[in-house]
Automatic annotation (TrEMBL):
It is found in: Endoplasmic reticulum membrane; Golgi apparatus membrane; Postsynaptic cell membrane. Keywords: Calcium, Cell adhesion, Cell membrane, Endoplasmic reticulum, Glycoprotein, Golgi apparatus, Membrane, Postsynaptic cell membrane, Repeat, Signal, Synapse, Transmembrane, Transmembrane helix. It comes from Takifugu rubripes (Japanese pufferfish). GO terms for molecular function: calcium ion binding. The keyword Lipid metabolism does not apply. This is Calsyntenin-3. GO terms for cellular component: cell surface; endoplasmic reticulum membrane; Golgi membrane; postsynaptic membrane. InterPro entries: Cadherin-like_dom, Cadherin-like_sf, CLSTN_C, ConA-like_dom_sf, Laminin_G. Residues 899-916 have a biased composition (Acidic residues). Residues 917-935 have a biased composition (Basic and acidic residues). CDD domains: Cadherin_repeat.
Length: 935
């Protein structure tokens, strides 16, 4: 049956219905479409309304038109169709299949059109544009896929791990429901492993490599739509034998041969983490050298010598010199032994104070100066200072407190420590009463270790170097109630002063600790290069080649080169870096001994709870005994003979004019011919630090004799000299050539008439604070006397009166010259007597010789006959012989030899005709065995 719906126009016009209104739709629609469908479900449903209804045509909806989205790009993938013209119901559908994985969201606009005023659609009207958002719903069309088809891992045996290996699968679906992997599963039965929903595989029991070395099993994955992976993944776990984490290849003892430069401390060391994943490694290497001097092995010279070797400008004043008659203000201070040549003074924080004399202080005027010192606060119980509270303020400890005169004014400064702070108070003019305070907060002040401080003041600029490193101060203008220092020149070391009454004061702020090498140099400040040289250690830790340092690696060495820190994130790079840590010692004659060595390691892992903890390793470095240098003194004969008047001249006589000093090192070499080792000596450039000339026997008599040195040479080289009656000492680090020049200028001078027959001296030199010494060169000085100057012993004259005329007793014997105007009246008579005695003595000796030979012959015959003859021995107990007074010296020089042996023939060395008259005296000598001897 056919139903006809007839609509009539409410107001017909010219046979047509009037189209007065536009269609109306919603302004926005939300739609959903499945990947396997093309119909879009809209919310709200698509209906177009027209107020012209129920007019035919004018109140009906003839169509919908779809436009591009807001971006205005791309082809419209959707269309809208009218399901019912009278009700305006429409349907949105896709023109082609949609892919959620390609595009999940779509947006476009839609309009509705009515049918107009007739079948031809004349005067049709359209609605406003409405926005349609369409979301493509995913269909679980994809299955999970593993990233790797095979997973491998290795673990040490005997441990449980939270994660051995992690497997991962991906799903290509676009929605979270179907693209996520909900769980993994181990499909191989009876394996000691488990897997969580994130793919992490762990062992459920400790693994044993002996029982099963390799475990192989399969795992699969499921997405949240319960789709299983297309292909399962294989997992292979290799069980390694037990692994002990820590440093491998550690050598507890390391030997160092002096002169070998730098050596690696850990050439075979490497870190074993047993497959534990770490992301940060830090190792600290510590070389303990505190027992060597002031923290490390430096040149064993005095502070003054080191300053000269470092090129410091001369003119420094030693405020704590070794106690001596000239510097007695340090005699009351206790001293401590030190392995180097410096003198360490101890201050107890109460009554140990050094008051520098005014003549020394007067040379320190001016507002430009450099103060240098070695400091060690208290002992091990010194703690960093806490914030002072009211009524409980710890007193500052003063190191140096000084007031000096500057032309017509006075300036004052004091260097103090308070807790872990170092402060310098400076008054450019005490009359101004406006001090300036420079403050430094330093850990070095309170760590109870030795530190070198250099304070360069060029007011208003102040520069502080601590262990060669610069520190900037916090400048404070102090306008508080600080009493003005008294305008009086004075300097204290170890405390400051406070005025009590008229002309009285007391010590305040006493220092507690050790000080050494406290010097002040007025004038220009010390250059930084000199300060670094003074502190520079000759031994320490170093790194081999920074260019080979791997990426991410960091190296830090402290100024004293006793602590080296390595930091990195890669184990292989870290192992290579550790093997390049070296020990260096640039001293040719390094101080032998043991240096404790420590290695501390800290690791940071992703899983901090199970991260490895490595214990501290301890060892030691042994510096072997270096080859001792042989310092040889030569070029000076054992005897020096000069006429006595030369010693009495204004310059005296040079003792060592031909002195030569040679330093050599002996070392063993293999000789290929004999296959043996031989010692060879190589001359080396060397530096001496002291030489000493000492008279042997009794000390020098200052009224009669003295040793002179060319002071111009000594001052030019900056050497120090001590000249006493017991010795003359020249000290200071200088080259061998300089010491040769100085020692060649040493002269021996006598007062008029003070010449003796001989005087002996001993010369020796040393190096490195007396550690190496030279041979002892002994020199015997002989004085050649003339006849006028030779004193004639009275006992000789008394014993020889039968040979000399009584009128000759007033004459003096001499050695070479006869300035006496009465020489012709004395000497001829004496010569005649001497000639007669010599002839007679020769005859007697011949007779006695013949008699002695016969006696020996007779005694030999008696022995063969069994008889003994004791009456034929020679009795010469009362012989008188002729002696040359110069023969004492000549016999030592090898000119004549003593006639030795009992019962042997005696010969006359020279005839009376060959000897001059003024070179002989007559001496009566009675031997205890009756033998005639020559003296």
């Amino acid at each position: 049956m056919t139903v006809f719906v007839v609509r009539y126009c409410a107001a017909p016009l010219a046979g047509r219905c009037a189209n007065k209104h536009k269609p109306w739709i919603e302004t926005e629609y939300q739609g959903i479409v499945m990947e396997n469908d093309n119909t879009v479900l809209l919310n709200p449903p698509l209906f177009a309304l027209d107020k012209d209804a129920p007019l035919h045509y004018a109140g009906e909806i003839c169509g919908f038109r779809v436009h591009n989205g807001p971006s205005g790009s791309g082809t419209v993938q959707f269309e809208a169709v009218v399901l019912d013209r009278s009700t305006g119901e429409g349907l949105v559908r896709s023109k082609e299949p949609l892919d959620c994985e390609n595009q999940r969201e779509h947006s476009f606009t839609i309009q509705a059109y009515d049918c107009g005023e007739g079948p031809d659609g004349a005067n049709s009207k359209k609605s406003h544009k409405a926005t349609v958002h369409v979301r493509v719903n995913d269909v679980n069309e994809f299955s999970p896929v593993f990233v790797e088809r095979r997973y491998e891992a290795s673990v040490p045996e005997g441990r449980l791990f939270d994660r051995i290996v992690r497997v991962e699968a991906l799903d290509a679906d676009c929605s979270p429901q179907y693209s996520q992997i909900c769980f993994y599963d181990i499909i191989t039965p009876n394996v000691p492993f488990a897997i969580d929903n994130d793919g992490n595989i762990k062992n459920t029991e400790p693994l044993d490599s002996k029982h099963q070395r390799v475990h192989t099993f399969w795992v699969t994955a499921f997405d949240c739509g319960k789709n299983r992976a297309q292909a399962d993944a294989q997992v292979v776990v290799t069980v390694k034998p037990s692994c002990k984490p820590g440093w491998m290849g550690w050598t507890k003892r390391v030997e160092y041969t002096p002169g070998s430069g730098s050596i690696p401390l850990f050439p075979g060391l490497h870190l074993e983490t047993c497959e534990e994943t770490v992301w940060n490694i830090q190792a600290t290497v510590e070389l303990q050298t505190g027992h060597i001097g002031k923290g490390c092995d430096r040149d064993s010279y005095s502070d003054r010598s080191v300053r000269r070797l470092c090129g410091a400008v001369r003119g420094e004043v030693d405020l704590l010199p070794p106690p001596s008659p000239a510097a007695n203000w340090t005699s009351a201070l206790p001293t401590l032994p030190s392995s180097d040549s410096s003198l360490v003074f101890s201050f107890n924080g109460s009554n140990h104070v050094a008051v520098v004399p005014d003549p020394v202080v007067s040379a320190l005027s001016g507002d430009h100066f450099t103060l240098q010192l070695w400091m060690r606060r208290g002992g091990g119980n010194i703690q960093p200072a806490t914030a002072p509270t009211r009524g409980n303020r710890k007193e500052e400890e003063t190191i140096v407190c000084s007031t000096v005169r500057n032309d017509d004014s006075f300036s004052h400064y004091s260097l103090s420590v308070h807790g872990c702070r170092l402060s310098l108070f400076y008054w450019p003019d005490v009359a101004a009463a406006r001090p300036v305070k420079f403050l430094w907060k330093l850990e070095q002040v309170c760590d109870s270790e030795w530190h070198h401080l250099s304070l360069s003041v060029q007011f208003p600029s102040v520069t502080l170097y601590v262990d060669g490193v610069t520190f900037d101060p916090a400048l404070i203008h102090d306008n508080g109630a600080i009493p003005n220092p008294a305008p009086r020149q004075r300097m204290f070391i170890g405390a400051c002063w406070e005025k009590q009454k008229e002309k009285t004061f007391k010590y305040v702020g006493s220092y507690h600790g050790l000080l050494s090498g406290v010097t002040v140099r007025p004038g220009s400040v010390e250059p930084h290069s000199v300060v670094e040289c003074l502190y520079a250690c000759r031994e320490g830790l170093d790194f081999g080649d920074l260019e080979t340092l791997g990426s991410g690696m960091k190296v830090h060495v402290n100024p004293s080169q006793s602590v080296l820190v390595l930091e990195g994130d890669d184990i292989e790079s870290f192992n290579r870096a550790v093997q390049q840590v070296t020990y260096r010692n640039s001293l040719r004659f390094a101080t032998p001994g043991v240096r404790p060595l420590k290695l501390t390691t800290s690791l940071r892992c992703f899983n901090e709870e199970s991260c490895l903890s490595l214990k501290q390793l301890e060892g030691y470095l042994v510096v072997l005994q270096p080859d001792a240098p042989q310092i040889s003194l030569s070029g000076v004969g054992p005897h020096l003979a000069r006429p006595a008047p030369e010693f009495e001249g204004p310059r005296g006589v040079s003792l060592f004019p031909e002195l030569r000093i040679v330093c050599s090192l002996s070392h063993a070499v293999n000789t290929a011919a004999q296959g043996m080792e031989a010692l060879m000596s190589d001359a080396v450039a060397h530096t001496l630090d002291g030489c000493e000339v000492q008279p042997l026997g009794e000390e020098l008599n200052p009224e009669r004799e003295e040793l002179l040195v060319d002071m111009d040479v000594v001052r030019e080289r900056g050497l120090e000299i001590i000249n006493t009656t017991a010795y003359i000492a020249i000290t200071g680090a200088e080259s061998i050539s300089v010491y040769e020049d100085v020692l060649r200028s040493v002269r021996y001078r006598l007062a008029k008439g003070s010449a003796r027959f001989e005087r002996r001296f001993r010369l020796s030199c040393s190096e490195m604070n007396g550690r190496y010494t030279s041979n002892e060169l002994t020199l015997e000085v002989n004085f050649l006397h003339s006849l006028d100057n030779l004193y004639h012993p009275s006992h000789l004259l008394a014993s020889q009166q039968q040979f000399l005329h009584p009128s000759h007793h007033a004459g003096e014997l001499s050695g070479h010259t006869l300035p006496n105007p009465h020489r012709n009246s004395v000497v001829p008579g004496a010569a005649t007597v001497i000639i007669m005695v010599c002839v007679g003595f020769l005859v007697v000796m011949v007779i006695l010789g013949v008699f002695r030979i016969r006696s020996i012959h007779r005694r030999g015959e008696g022995a063969r006959g069994g008889s003994k003859d004791g009456s034929g021995q020679w009795d010469d107990s009362a012989l008188t012989i002729i002696v040359n007074p110069m023969e004492t010296y000549e016999s030592r020089m090898g000119i004549s030899a003593d006639m030795e042996g009992e019962g042997e023939e005696e010969e006359v060395a020279e005839s009376p005709e060959d000897a001059s008259d003024d070179q002989r005296i007559i001496v009566k000598k009675e031997g205890r065995d009756g033998a005639a001897r020559r003296y």
